[in-house]
Write a structure and sequence with these properties.
single chain, mainly alpha
Length: 108
C-alpha cells in the first residue's frame, strides 16, 4: 500500500467516524428532547389529577379520578417506551450507516 493510499484510507476512516459521531449526537439529542417533553407532560398530568382529586366530593369520585389517572399514565408510559425504542433503533441505524459498505465488503 502506498503512502497516498494509506492517507486516503485514514481520511475515509476519519470521515466515517465523524459521520457516525454526528448521527449519535443527533440521535441522542432527539432522545433527550423526547424524555424532557414526556417528563413535562407527566408532571402536568400529575398536577391536573391532583387538583381533580382534591376537588372530589366523595370517595367514589376520588377513586374514579385516581383510576383514570393510573390508566392514562400507564397508556402514556407504554406509548413513550415504544417511541423511545424507535428513536434508539433509528440512532443505531444512522450511526452504523457510514460503516455499512466497509463491513459488507468483509462479509463476502
Amino acid at each position: 500500500m502506498t503512502g497516498e493510499e494509506m492517507q486516503n484510507l485514514g481520511k475515509n476512516n476519519m470521515d466515517m467516524a465523524l459521520t457516525s459521531f454526528g448521527a449519535w449526537s443527533k440521535g441522542a439529542q432527539a432522545i433527550a428532547v423526547e424524555v424532557v417533553d414526556y417528563s413535562k407532560k407527566t408532571a402536568e398530568s400529575s398536577a391536573a389529577a391532583w387538583e381533580k382529586l382534591m376537588g372530589a366530593k366523595s370517595l367514589e369520585k376520588a377513586m374514579e379520578v385516581q383510576t383514570e389517572y393510573l390508566k392514562s399514565s400507564y397508556e402514556g408510559f407504554v406509548a413513550e417506551a415504544a417511541k423511545l425504542g424507535e428513536l434508539y433503533v433509528d440512532l443505531a441505524k444512522e450511526a452504523y450507516r457510514p460503516f455499512e459498505s466497509t463491513f459488507a465488503g468483509h462479509r463476502q
